[in-house]
Design goal:
With 315 residues, this protein is α/β, with parallel strands linked by helices. The chain has helices spanning 10-14, 31-34, 37-48, 79-88, 121-131, 182-192, 220-230; strands at residues 19-24, 66-68, 101-103, 138-139, 146-150, 153-157, 201-204, 235-240, 247-251, 254-258, 263-264, 276-277, 280-285, 289-295, 300-307. The chain has a single domain (18-307), classed as 4-Layer Sandwich (Purple Acid Phosphatase, chain A, domain 2). The protein is globular, with a radius of gyration of 19 Å. It starts with 9 loop residues before the first helix and ends in an 8-residue tail after the last strand.
Length: 315
């Protein structure tokens, strides 16, 4: 039998089947504006997908969780939006989606009217939901940022973006656009939890790393600091949302995948025409590789895979 990487863990290495997880982003619930028909259809597809053929071979397994990469609601002023979201997604899988939701705060989950440093009602409930997650998690002291391990791969969730300072939005001062010391959390995780620098790491946050997803939301200074912090580690993948579409690209040599929103929103001027499904991502973790399939709700589109065995030079 081939030698196993130190990071894999015996249970993960001996698993007969790959570990499956799903990723979606930006459900951005706004009931009166564009409804939730497309999102509900995508959730039905997610619930029924285990056992289906996977485009890279084998079957789709039952997902251990579904990452929801930010913008859980669209508009905080209408509390029914958050209530509807919670009926769809739950950290313990006790909602319309039958699998645990690994949630992330996006810019729409924040309010431009909230004072600097203060939390809105959604953020407070988000923290309480995190406290009741089942399984082993590592949190920051506020239970806001968190990390976990799936099949030997370390996942680190950093909410809106990795940084320590609030940033302007579209060149306007925005104290609400506060990463809440997520860069410090990342540093702490890497220095204390990742004892083998060859261990694969997946980083997850909301904003993108190029184009509209970067411009006007965070800064080059943040990118420079991020690059310094992750240098020398085996960053297998960076996941984000924010732009409501699928894309796969690279940043500084790191693989990046942008998750699509679950629905194509209806036109508010034609509310009689319901929103339609848009898509989500299916990932599988093998002993030595990660695979992805992009599903539109009706068919498979793009696929992607890479080795998890990248070696990292000592710094």
């Amino acid at each position: 039998m081939a030698l196993l990487p130190a990071w894999s863990g015996q249970a993960a290495a001996e698993a007969a089947e790959p570990m499956t997880f799903f990723v979606t982003a930006d459900p951005q619930i706004n009931i009166p504006k564009w409804g939730t028909a497309g999102t509900e259809q995508i959730i039905d597809v997610m619930n029924g997908l285990p056992g289906a053929d996977f485009p890279l071979g084998g079957k789709v397994g039952k997902p251990v969780g579904v990452i929801v990469a930010g913008d859980l609601v669209d508009e905080l002023g209408n509390a029914e939006n958050w209530k509807r979201y919670k009926s769809f997604y739950d950290p313990r899988g006790k909602a319309k989606l039958m699998f645990p939701a690994y949630e992330i705060i996006g810019n729409h989950d924040l309010s431009s009217r909230q004072p600097a440093g203060e939390l809105n009602y959604l953020q407070k409930e988000f923290i309480e939901r995190n406290k009741h997650r089942e399984g082993k998690f590592d949190f920051d002291k506020h239970h806001y940022h968190y990390a976990w391990t799936w099949a030997g791969v370390r996942f680190i969730q950093l909410n809106i973006f990795p940084g320590n300072t609030h940033r302007p939005v579209y060149d306007r001062e925005a104290p609400w656009n506060d990463p809440r010391l997520s860069l410090d959390f990342l540093k702490e995780e890497l220095s204390t939890r990742v004892t083998d620098k060859n261990q694969p790491i997946v980083l997850v946050w909301h904003y993108g790393l190029r184009g509209w997803g970067l411009d006007k939301w965070w800064t080059q200074e943040d990118l420079t600091e991020l690059a310094k912090v992750i240098k020398g580690y085996n960053i297998a993948l960076i996941l984000h949302g924010h732009e409501h579409r699928f894309d796969q690209y690279q940043w500084e040599g790191y693989d990046v995948i942008m998750a699509p929103s679950p629905q194509q929103d209806r036109d508010p001027k034609q509310p009689e025409i319901a929103s339609k499904p848009k898509g989500f991502l299916v990932f599988r973790l093998h002993r030595d590789k990660i695979e992805m399939g992009h599903h539109t709700g009706s068919e498979w589109k793009q696929t992607w895979s890479k080795s998890l065995r990248a070696t990292v030079k000592a710094q």
